[in-house]
Protein: Cytochrome c domain-containing protein
Amino acid sequence: MNNNNRIDLYIFLGLLAFTIPWIIKIQTQTQYSLKTDSIKVDSSLIKSIIRGKQLFRTESCYSCHKVDKRICFGPRLGKILDRRSKDFLVKFIKNEDSLVKAKHPDVIALKEEYKWANGLHNKKHLTNGQINDIINYLQLFD
Structure:
């Protein structure tokens, strides 16, 4: 490498060493922050989703259901409101047995497809609000 090439290389590296920190500083200045004035976030919905996620885990829903994958013991729950009404989901989660006894066609079809025993969804101890929290959590995956 001749002297002219070395000088050019040193100049380039010097400029690069100065330019990179300068670009990073510009990109991280607060004057480029997001405008959130027009974004309205319902804090009660966020709290509901957080509670729903916790309930989904503590009630062992995740052991059979996944929200984004078909490979599981029960139906995939992503986009569940495209397939079932919220009213149906509340009834089913709270008292599956009553729907089985009434021979609800959707429940019978699900039982046959996934070959599960009665009572796995008898969550009578959950309030309708808690079940709604779970449904709100599942809507994140629609």
Summary: The chain has two domains: 3-32, 44-141.
